[in-house]
Amino acid sequence: MKHWLTFALVTTLFWGTTPILDRLAMGRAQPMAAVAVRGVVVGLVSVLIVAATGKMGDLAALDRRTVLLLAAGGLLAALVGQFTYFRALKMGPASAVVPIVACYPLVTVMLGILVLREPLTLSRAGGALLIVLGILLVK
Q1: Is the alpha carbon torsion for 123, 97, 43, 21 positive or negative?
Q2: How many domains does one find in the chain?
C-alpha cells in the first residue's frame, strides 16, 4: 500500500468516527461553544507536539503568504465550517448530515479545475457524479 493511501485511510477512519462523538456532544453544547473547545484543544496540543518534537523552527520558517493561506483555510474550515457543521449536526441526524457535508470534494474538484487549472478527467467527473448520486440517496 502506498504511504499516502495509508494516511488517507486512517484519516477516513478518524473523520468517520468523529461525527458520532460530535453528535453525542451536541445534545448539551451550542455550536460556537463546541467550535471554541475544539479550537483550543487542537491549538494547544498542536503547539505542544511541535515544541516536543523540536520543530518550532518550522513555524519560524514559514513565509507570510503561507501563513496567510493557512490562516484563511483555518478560518474557513475550523471556524466557519465547524460552526455550520455543528449547527447542522445539532438539528439533524448524523447519518444524513455527514454524507451531505462530505460532498466537499465536489467543491474541491470544481475549484481545482478553475483555480489550479487541474484537468477534468473522466474518472474525476465520474467520481463527482457518484457523490451527487450518493447525496440524493441519503437525502
Answers
A1: negative
A2: 2
- On whether both 35 and 13 belong to a single domain, the answer is yes
- The pLDDT tens digits of the residues spanning 60-108 come to 999 999 999 999 999 999 899 999 999 999 999 988 888 888 888 888 8
Exposed/middle/buried for residue 91 (C-beta within 10 Å: 0-12, 13-18, 19+): exposed
Q: Measure the CA–CA gap between 71 and 5, rounded to whole angstroms.
A: 26
- Picking from 115, 102, 46, the residue whose alpha carbon sits closest to that of residue 74 is 46
Please, how many CA atoms are within 13 Å of residue 80, restricted to the half-sphere of its CB?
6
Residue 61 in grid coordinates: 520558517
Label residue 12 by pLDDT band (50, 70, 90).
Answer: confident
